[in-house]
């Protein structure tokens, strides 16, 4: 497949490019577009053929449903098979457009290929002008998973998308790096107390402040319970390297990582360390990447997937990562780190 690659300036969007991309969506083709969370691999959410081509391009298991992206409340109401609850209204007013995906009953307009046979549909309104214009101009809700090859870290830069999907989609819209850097928070509103199925850009604390009560899906915390969001059961974000997270007091963590690094180097392994600004100068390894300061974990979120890809690019064998606080956005970052490490955590 010949992929058309377009460069876009998000401050000054070239509407001719958006119109060309919207035409591809209307013809049931595939278009990758930037969002504030990660890049999405989009296609017409009303067409089962379009949905199938998304699964094919990503190599995605067909039991993992897609998120539908909308640009207006009218479009949301066309996609869902229920009226908006008070809670949904509150959340939409406060957080849309933004990194919050809500689960609703689906309407008949959405084919089961989009929802993997579920009678619910995941919907969000992205906070990115290129994404919103693409949806508006095509006049269609757009189903879009993250635009990576299934199993790889989600793409937060146009170059990640080109590496993974050039030749596998009709078009790629290249914008700037994703602002949030981890995928949207998924919230299930179909139960008495709303449940976070995937932590993301809108935090537990953000949601709790609006709703008063929120739970976290048990499947996110323990390896033994099956997560309710089908996609969360896959070992996502997995770098090629073996990864270990070290958790504890900062000095003890740094000491442990240094001794493990020496041990692996002695075995002839290439060692990478995922550090923070507070510790990065203490380490010597083949590649040390800082996730940013522990004072601002939003920086860690924005850079985490790029860091995981960089370790692979430099053919690192072993990644040793510092655990972060799970407060606020830290919960989403740690969730991605734990999955990348296959829940391999050492406590010191
Ligand atoms: O930030 C994001 O959400 C990005 C951008 C592109 O918008 N998209 C994204 O899509 O992360 P994807 O396909 O990589 O992840 C979708 C997640 C999966 O874990 C899937 O199982 C879950 O959403 N999901 C989709 N529909 C669902 C439903 N009806 N019930 C429960 N989970 C659902
Ligand atoms: Mg994904």
Task: Give a verbal description of the structure.
The structure is a single chain. With 348 residues, the chain is of the alpha/beta class. It folds into two domains: 4-233, Alpha-Beta Complex (DHBP synthase); 242-347, 3-Layer(aba) Sandwich (Rossmann fold), CATH 3.40.50.11030. The chain has helices at residues 15-26, 48-58, 73-79, 86-95, 112-115, 129-138, 158-165, 204-211, 218-221, 250-266, 297-313, 330-340; strands at residues 4-7, 31-33, 40-44, 67-69, 100-105, 120-124, 142-143, 171-174, 185-188, 195-198, 215-216, 242-247, 271-275, 287-290, 318-322, 345-347. Strand 2 (31-33) and strand 3 (40-44) form a beta hairpin. Helix 1 crosses helix 6 (129-138) and helix 11 packs parallel to helix 12. The radius of gyration is 20 Å and the shape is globular. The N and C termini lie far apart (50 Å). The model has no long low-confidence stretch (mean pLDDT 95). Bound molecules: threonylcarbamoyladenylate and magnesium ion. Magnesium ion binds next to loops.
Instruction: Say what oligomer this is.
Output: single chain
- According to CATH, the homologous superfamily of the largest domain is DHBP synthase
Ligand roster: threonylcarbamoyladenylate, magnesium ion
Q: Per the principal axes of the C-alpha atoms, what is the gross shape?
A: globular
Helix content: 25-40%
Low-confidence stretches: none
Number of separate structural domains: 2
The strand line-up of the biggest sheet is 1-8-2-3-7-4-6-5-9-10-11
Strand count? 16
What structural class is derived from the secondary structure elements?
alpha/beta
* Mean pLDDT figure: 95
- The SSE string, one letter per element, is EHEEHEHHEHEHEHEEEHEHEHEEHEHE
């Amino acid at each position: 497949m010949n992929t058309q690659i377009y460069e876009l300036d998000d401050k000054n969007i070239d509407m001719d490019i958006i119109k060309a991309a919207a035409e591809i969506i209307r013809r049931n083709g595939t278009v990758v577009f930037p969002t504030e969370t990660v890049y999405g691999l989009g296609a017409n959410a009303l067409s089962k053929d379009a949905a199938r081509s998304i699964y094919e391009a990503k190599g995605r298991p067909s039991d993992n449903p897609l998120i539908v992206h909308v640009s207006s409340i009218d479009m949301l109401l066309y996609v869902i098979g229920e009226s908006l609850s008070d809670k949904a209204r509150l959340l939409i007013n406060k957080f849309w457009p933004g990194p919050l995906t809500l689960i609703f009953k689906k309407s008949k307009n959405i084919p089961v290929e989009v929802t993997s046979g579920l009678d619910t549909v995941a919907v969000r309104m992205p906070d990115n002008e290129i994404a919103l214009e693409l949806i508006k101009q095509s006049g269609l809700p757009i189903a879009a998973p993250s635009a990576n090859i299934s199993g790889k870290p989600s793409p937060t830069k146009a170059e990640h998308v080109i590496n993974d999907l050039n030749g596998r989609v009709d078009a790629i819209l290249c914008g700037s790096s994703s602002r949030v850097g981890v995928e949207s928070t998924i919230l299930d509103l179909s139960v008495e107390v709303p449940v976070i199925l995937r932590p993301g850009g809108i935090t537990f604390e953000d949601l709790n402040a609006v709703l008063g009560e929120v739970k976290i899906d048990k499947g996110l915390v323990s390896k033994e319970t099956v997560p309710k969001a089908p996609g969360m059961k896959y070992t996502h974000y997995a770098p090629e390297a073996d990864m270990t997270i070290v958790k504890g007091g900062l000095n003890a963590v740094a000491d442990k990582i240094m001794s493990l690094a020496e041990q692996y180097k002695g075995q002839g392994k290439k060692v990478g360390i995922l550090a923070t600004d507070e510790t990065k100068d203490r380490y010597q390894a083949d590649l040390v990447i800082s996730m940013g300061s522990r004072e601002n974990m939003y920086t860690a979120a924005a850079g985490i997937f790029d860091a995981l890809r960089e370790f692979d690019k430099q053919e690192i064998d072993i990644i040793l990562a510092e655990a972060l606080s799970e407060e606020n956005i830290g919960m989403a970052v740690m969730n991605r780190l734990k999955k990348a490490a296959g829940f391999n955590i050492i406590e010191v």
